[in-house]
Amino acid sequence: MKNLIEIKNLSYSYDDFDDEKNEKSITKALDCINLDIKENEFVAILGHNGSGKSTLAKLLNAQILPTQGDIYYLGMNTKDEDKIWKIRELSSMVFQNPDNQMVATTVEEDVAFGVENLQIQNPELRQRVDKALELVSMQDYKKKSPDQLSGGQKQRVSIAGVIAMMSRCIVLDEPTAMLDPNGRKDVVNIVNNLHKRYNKTIVYITHYMEEAVNADKIVVLNKGKIAMIGDAHEVFGNVEKMKQLGLDVPQVTELAYNLKKRGINFDKMPLTIKELLEQI
Predict the structure, then answer these.
(1) Are the beta carbons of 44 and 218 closer than 8 angstroms?
(2) Beta strands at 23-38 and 3-18: parallel, antiparallel or unpaired
(3) Could you say which of 133, 159, 222, 277 is the most buried, measured as most Cβ atoms within 10 Å of its Cβ?
């Protein structure tokens, strides 16, 4: 698979204020990140608060630009103003708080908003909106006001909006952080379906470890740097390193880790209950 996104020596700093010195200071949120994301790849980004996850998401969506280094989409630099709209056609973003993406008075108008900005006309506009709502099981709510929806339903509508834009890459910045367990499960299922069935490139930022087990690649950030990178078994299998970074592992992996300390060996650390039962 070819690279859809190439991140080269990426750093980002922002102005801060030092209360003790009563003066401005510079805080480096990301420090020399190098990462390739392939077409149709599912990449999960993990890290504790302040690790640089959300900053990376904004950079990928060209909401902010690198202080140093570059991000390329199919060779197009996010710093190139002439390419910015083509880049945003390639990549869309789902925010942590769905209310930040609600701009219209009905669900269908909200889903159509981004597509209209791409100057797509009917009947294609209508077809895209209807198909996107169907994919997230919100077709029966298209005439509803977003204010009448639950948090999980609002997040489904946000995802429908980026589906309708037919972006090749979807960046999701902790999309389940404000949802209950059922809402989280629904969103994760939708994202997995977009990746497996519709071949979307997914960049999924989360602090729920179980949500990352289906990723093709996991990137762990710590203090603005890449601390670990690999597939789910490689990253979560290194339980001690994850704990050193102040992060958890999936509950099943934690159980297996404790069993291993008591003499039960595993070929590889399990990520799911099925994998655990197969090895016991």
Answers:
(1) yes
(2) antiparallel
(3) 159
